[in-house]
Amino acid sequence: MYSAVAFERWGSFFIVRFLYILQKMRKDTHKYIIGVDEVGRGPLAGPVAVGVVKLEVEKFSCPRLRPRREPADSESADSKLKVEWARGFRDSKKLSAKAREAWMVKIEEARSEGWLEYAVAFVAPSVIDKRGIVCAIQTAIARALETVETKTRKRVTLFPIPKKGNPFSGTRVLLDGGLRAPAYYKYQETIIKGDEKELAIALASIVAKVTRDKRMVALAKKFPHYGFERHKGYGTHAHYVAIKKHGVTPHHRRSFLKSIFPASKVRPSNQLVRVLDGDY
What we know:
- By secondary structure, this protein is an alpha/beta fold.
- 45% of the residues lie in helices and 13% in strands.
- It is built from 9 helices and 5 strands, in the order αββααβααββαααα.
């Protein structure tokens, strides 16, 4: 689908952009960079998910793309790791499911090495119906950020928290589209099509997409008539037909169906189960 030249071009673009952000952050004394993206805003069923990826700037320090000299043995592993790790990356939404899974393996490896942390937060359809999708996404953002901060604070030597002042003052948050982080993140930036421009946001998109897809595949086993494993809850023709035939499940967003089906036809499925926000 994409040529090798285009693949390498996207990889070089991401690396140059990320190195620029790292250099700017060092001048601004930011120690961490966080990418935030959401997945599942528009589906008729399933939760909305927000992915957060946190990188430590010094751990992600990169040499020149073409070093003037070969690094010494003592620094070769650290010098080559991050450039090679990000090489070949492109727009996360254009990656195939197989490619996303491959990147997820690399993300897990980076996490185990201690220089990357991530979290994914879900908000259930019942909350979306009650509070609206915008409020649900903001709730998921707050939850995901809190989770990733809690995880990294446990690594005292890796992510030391200042004893005084705002503990988030050394963090720069990059968000996709119109997303906003809580106000206590002083240094945050919303970037249109951020998953195409910033590596941290693209990685957040991948972890959110892969994790949500797995949830929808699991739901498909409980509700086999709807094809969740194929369309992941989005409004395909087959999904509409299944809703008309079998009714809605507790995992459907009833507020998203009002304009499509009259209220009298949005009948419950025979496979009703109790669904709470905690189930996600």
